[in-house]
Amino acid sequence: MVEFTSLLLPIVLSAVLVFFASSAIHMGLRYHNSDYLQLPNEDALAAVLRGVGPGEYPFPYCKDHKQMNSPEMMRKFTEGPIGVLYMRRASHLKLGPFLGKWFAYTLAVTAVVAYLARAELHAGATTAAVFQLVGTATWLAYGWQGPADSIWKGKPWSSTGKYMFDGLVYALLTASMFACCWPAAA
């Protein structure tokens, strides 16, 4: 079995690569800009929502399945709108905390993938075997929540496809780093 400490370098380097790749995607390439739309009458809607606390608010809201079949709920679903609203605490938007959390997340994902790889691969494993296992696990972690969000929350599939592509980029970078740094046989 490969010692976890021997994987610290590829863990950290992979997290750094993913962090910079995501920065390039979102701040340089900006192909996600079209995923976000402005609401009509945003100011009026904001005034109505002011005071609503942080949380996830599906609408129309339905407490249980019995209520789902009531004429009133059926009318609400038929007439629309249907959606999920995510609210954050009101504050000045500072990117630093978001970027710090994102970097911590990339470290966590990469550490879990390293744990899986060390459990399944031996020192001296082939580059292809390391690349395959690490790449697949990393892509699952970064890219495959999106379809569930499109199925259950109505996120546009075009946006999900882009985020799955991003996840594939992150997986290829991580798999490449691990394949290059994988410990040789003793």
Structural account:
By secondary structure, this protein is mostly helical. The chain folds into 2 domains: 4-38 and 92-181, no CATH class; 51-89, no CATH class. The chain has helices at 8-29, 42-49, 65-68, 71-79, 95-120, 127-143, 146-153, 157-181, and strands at 55-59, 83-87. The chain has a two-stranded antiparallel ribbon. Helix 1 (8-29) packs across helix 5.
Helix content: 55-70%
**Cα gyration radius (Å):** 21 Å
Instruction: Say how many strands there are.
Output: 2
Q: How many separate structural domains?
A: 2
Q: How far do the termini sit from each other? A: 11 Å
Number of helices: 8
List segments where confidence is low: pLDDT < 50 over at least 5 consecutive residues.
none
Tell me about the largest β-sheet. 2 strands, antiparallel
Strand order of the largest sheet: 1-2
The rough form would be described as elongated
How much of the sequence lies in strands comes to 5-15%
Mean pLDDT, to the nearest integer, reads 96
Please provide the ordered H/E string of secondary-structure elements.
HHEHHEHHHH
Briefly note the structural class of the backbone.
mainly alpha
